[in-house]
Amino acid sequence: MTPEAASYLLSPPALAFLGLCIGSFLNVVIHRIPLMLERGWKLDSAEMLGVTIEPPAEISLAKPRSRCPSCGHAIAWYENIPVLSYLRLGGKCSACKTRISARYPLVEVLTGLLFAATAWRFGAQPTTLLWCGFVAALVALAGIDWDTTLLPDNLTLPLLWAGLVSAALGWTVPLGTALWGAVAGYLSLWSVYWIFKKATGKEGMGYGDFKLLAALGAWLGVQMVLPIVLAASVLGAVVGIAMKMGGGLREGRYVPFGPFLAGAGIVVMLAGPARVLGWLGWA
Questions:
Q1: Of 190, 200, 172, the residue nearest 229 (C-alpha)
Q2: Strand, helix or coil at 226?
Q3: How far is Cα 105 from Cα 186, in angstroms, rounded to an integer?
Q4: Residue 268: its pLDDT value, please?
Q5: pLDDT of residue 89
Q6: Phi and psi at residue 236, in whole multiples of 5°?
Q7: Residues in CB range of 57: below 8 A, 6 or more apart
Q8: What span, in angstroms and rounded, lies between the C-alpha atoms of 60 and 114?
Q9: Of 94 and 260, the one with more pLDDT
Q10: Distance separating alpha carbons of residues 253 and 183, to the nearest angstrom
């Protein structure tokens, strides 16, 4: 690839368009991975208990085709163009006119903007695509955790290993920094979990949060673990209090921590370690 072609294909406008398309796929990931996990859990539980159940319908990221959850209308390709199809349909199913959630185009637009920001941050180089993959994984994890309070291992663990392998290949941070970032990320929240549980008898977070922070440490380095936790804690507290005061948080429920870890990780990536440490006065 010539430098001119790379400069064009990895420019913010080009990656913004790519992000819109990837965002459309992330909507599928956010919706279907919990269903795939639930199906697997049911089958495994039935096998362990030695009972026979009606196998749940097979589902994957590719099959079956996307359909309207209300009427079952199969969505045609021209009804699945990022953002444009939503606007053309007026935010409604073309068959039954049931309203389509605005979150679908919002995820597409958000991913497009984040891809453009990533291109602006890293420039026209191949590793920019690597960081776009990092961003896409975090958007998917944030959406799944917000909906289900789950951070699936089949996303967090590949993200963790990808961070370590990328560091080993010299594409991101030094390998030692990445390794200790993963260790510090996991153990920090693991320690908080057990201290809170011993003190209150309750679980304040899930193991998925440990793995997500370990993955962020592997990608961004050990120095960024504490800034990510601080930023995520502040954001989570502000959103939780706002939801509680607005009646959006029912008694006994809590705001998942994963979306704020993911958001803080993206902010740290875009700002860069030097700027983040400067903000905290640690430079």
A1: 190
A2: helix
A3: 33
A4: 95
A5: 86
A6: -60, -40
A7: 39
A8: 26
A9: 260
A10: 30
Taking a C-beta distance cutoff of 8 angstroms, is the pair 262, 138 a contact? yes
pTM (2 d.p.): 0.93
**CA nearest neighbour of 96 among 77, 71, 67:** 71
Tokens of 219: 């990608």
List Cβ neighbours of 125 (8 Å cut-off, separation of 6 or more): 6, 10
Report residue 206 as tokens: 């899930």
Tokens of 162: 């990808």
Residues 6 or more apart in contact with residue 120 via CB below 8 angstroms: 12
Burial class for 155, CB neighbours closer than 10 Å (0-12, 13-18, 19+): buried
Q: Dump pLDDT digits (tens) for 106-153.
A: 999 999 999 999 999 999 899 999 999 999 999 999 999 999 999 999
Q: Rounded to an integer, what distance in angstroms lies between the CA atom of residue 198 and that of residue 124?
A: 49
Q: Which residues are within 8 A (CB) of 34 and not within 5 positions of it... i.e. 6 or more apart? A: 144, 147, 148, 150, 152
Q: Is 125 exposed, middle or buried (0-12, 13-18, 19+ CB in 10 A)?
A: middle
Residue 41 has pLDDT above 90, yes or no: no
What integer pLDDT is reported at residue 8 of this predicted model?
Answer: 75
Q: Using CA of residue 123, residue 126, residue 131, residue 135, what is the dihedral sign?
A: positive
Name the pLDDT band for 5 (thresholds 50, 70, 90): low
* Nearby residues of 112 by Cβ (< 8 Å), 6 or more positions away: 16, 17, 18, 19, 20, 23, 82
The CA distance from 140 to 266, in Å, is 13
Gap between the Cα atoms of 172 and 180, Å rounded: 14
Q: 157: left (phi > 0), else alpha (psi -120 to 50), else beta?
A: alpha
Determine the distance from the C-alpha atom of residue 116 to the mean position of all C-alpha atoms in its chain, rounded to a whole number: 17
Average pLDDT in the chain: 89
For residue 78, give both structure tokens.
Answer: 């021209």
Nearest in space to 57 (alpha carbons), one of 35, 74, 73: 35
